[in-house]
Amino acid sequence: MRWYAFLLYPFALLYKLVTSLRNWFFDMGWLKSAHSPIPSIVVGNLSVGGTGKTPMVEFLIRMLQKEKSTAVLSRGYGRKTNGFLQANWMLSPDDIGDEPFQIFQKFGQDISVFVGENRVNALNKIAALPTSPELIILDDAFQHRYVTGDLKILLTTYQRPFYSDFLLPMGRIRESRAGAKRADVVVITKCPEALSASEKTRLISKVSPNIRMGTPVLFSSITYGRPFGLMNQTSITGKILLLTGLANDQPLVDYVRTKYDLLEVMSYPDHHDYGLSDFEKIRSKMNQYAAQKPVVFTTEKDAVKVKSNAPKGFLEEIPIFVLPIEVCFSPADELALAQLIQQKVFKRDII
What we know:
Elements: H1 9-28, E1 34-35, E2 40-45, H2 53-64, E3 70-74, E4 85-86, H3 93-96, H4 98-107, E5 112-115, H5 119-127, E6 135-139, E7 147-148, E8 151-157, E9 185-189, H6 197-207, E10 217-224, E11 228-229, E12 239-245, H7 250-259, E13 261-268, H8 276-288, E14 295-299, H9 300-309, H10 314-317, E15 320-323, E16 325-329, H11 331-344
Parallel strand pairs: 1-7, 2-6, 2-8, 3-5, 3-6, 8-9, 9-10, 12-13, 12-14, 14-15
Antiparallel strand pairs: 4-5, 10-16, 11-15
Helix pairs in contact: 4-9
């Protein structure tokens, strides 16, 4: 916690009052929740970001797209448009948001991607399509209680779990820890790959008082794939300038530092919209380290903004490589998640 956080305690109390009243209105039925017309999985968190929602959504797509026709619905955070849109190749990250564009760019041949800040309206429009999907994944919808999903997956990181965090603005959680009771499964993300059984037991004991009895707690880690050139570059010198626009880039920084010679990190806020001054900074850093012949590493999410916003000729001049990321579970936890999906989501097909 930041050293001055205690000064923000009155504001956190006010924030708790507002969010608790909102949740109470939903619990009492004074604010109405609509059940999704399409079998649905909600992926979300209690914090303001950095829990790995997009990699988790991509994991679910890989797991389920061959079994069911699948779609993703997102608010489209940071986009410069409004209303309901279906992703297509004529649109850009500015139109639908960087994370939906990333998902569409990777899976758009096999799934549908939609954005809409009014998720109830968006779901009804999707359900009315001539070929509506058999499954929809609702990205970052845990706090969006106007829609009730069939399976609610709550993500929290190993490094900063919600049970030891505090409400905004003291900490980073968006509602009381009691909100975790709405989850059907909790996934502790970004775990070390070799997490011991005793450490898992300890973490479960910390999570359990905040969730409903019997709610499963699963564990996932992240793996990084082979970097690929944004403009088909192939030569990596091993000298790296890292470009990130993430809520928490520390795991990525740590990984790159262990695998490569990390010269410098250019860190920006989550969902940063790269502009001309940023590209000039990248060029300046490349010139500064020119003798070492560095390359730029960035994330898939940042890459879509960089590619869309870069000035003419920049991508041919600056060697930029994308470092892909994937979620992985132990076989036992992956099976447990698959069984939950079958029980809570796909059972709608036979009810």
